[in-house]
Design a protein that fits this description.
The structure is a single chain. By secondary structure, this protein is an alpha/beta fold. The chain folds into two domains: about 130 residues, Rossmann fold (3-Layer(aba) Sandwich), CATH 3.40.50; about 170 residues, Vaccinia Virus protein VP39 (Rossmann fold), CATH 3.40.50.150. Helices cover about 25% and strands about 35% of the residues. A seven-stranded mixed sheet has the order 11-10-9-12-15-17-16, sandwiched between helices. A six-stranded mixed sheet has the order 2-1-3-4-6-5. The chain has a two-stranded antiparallel sheet with strand order 7-8. β9, α5 and β10 form a beta-alpha-beta unit. GO terms for molecular function: N-methyltransferase activity; nucleic acid binding; S-adenosylmethionine-dependent methyltransferase activity. InterPro entries: DNA_methylase_N6_adenine_CS (IPR002052), RsmC/RlmG (IPR046977), SAM-dependent_MTases_sf (IPR029063), Small_mtfrase_dom (IPR007848). Keywords: Cytoplasm, Methyltransferase, rRNA processing, S-adenosyl-L-methionine, Transferase.
Amino acid sequence: MTTLLYGRPPVVFDPPGTGAGGAIQTSPLIPGSTALETVPEGSVDDVMIYAPPGVLERRYALALALRALKVGGRLDVMALKDKGGSRLKKELTGFGVEVGETAKAHHRRCIVIKPETLTGIDEAIAEGAPRIVPGLEAWSQPGVFAWDRIDAGSALLAQHMPALKGAGVDLGCGYGALATVALRSAAVTSLRLIDLDRRAVEAARKNVEDPRVSIEWADVRTMTADGELNFVVSNPPFHDGGAEDRRLGQAFIRKAAELLKKGGVAWIVANRHLPYEAELNTAFNRVRLVADAGGYKLFEAVK
């Protein structure tokens, strides 16, 4: 019996374990997981999905899961009511399935048994698939941070970024927008791009083709740091599963300091309302507010 798991459902929904012989994790936000796109059609008995909040991203995951299920296989999907849960039943019904819906712990939960025939699956997969985004002229995918635009914070950092030198890292690289700017400096000898999102990493590999670059699918918070880099650039995340979590940005700041050698510099941009100054002043020797515009603030922090 083959079971897939997508994301980390709350324990109240009794998610299956992912140890030896357990469910196969397929979330793009969990490094090392299996890509749901690669699961053969009609090969799976059960799927549990903790549905993502974005409409295109969610419908894409639901369609891939239904495609992977055997006829008669079971799809169990849940989401917070205000993060897509209230739309789940309608979205699933649109695929031509019968849906059983319940409410629990501020979530909506839908159970589906895969029928012989589905509708709209190919369209949902196409709408959520990787593509070159018009205007960006770069590869991206729904679900990636600011997937179809240049984020205003990243734009502010790019505007003020000096010609960097030596070895550096882009923490939370997304599809590679900031890395492209950093690499304009011929004095950059190497640049690591790191992101938690497999989709962002795959897009960055297509967008940033430079022999100085290495790209990693990893969690910045748990990566090892040797204190040997000259610079860090970062627009840290501050949402986890659609909910604001300021600890993410604070962890990125601490990791940036750990990665840098003495005298190394971090260029970090953040939404104006986020209270990162105390963390920056603790982790770095000198901190300067470079710009405060458009709801964002940009810091230069020297170790």
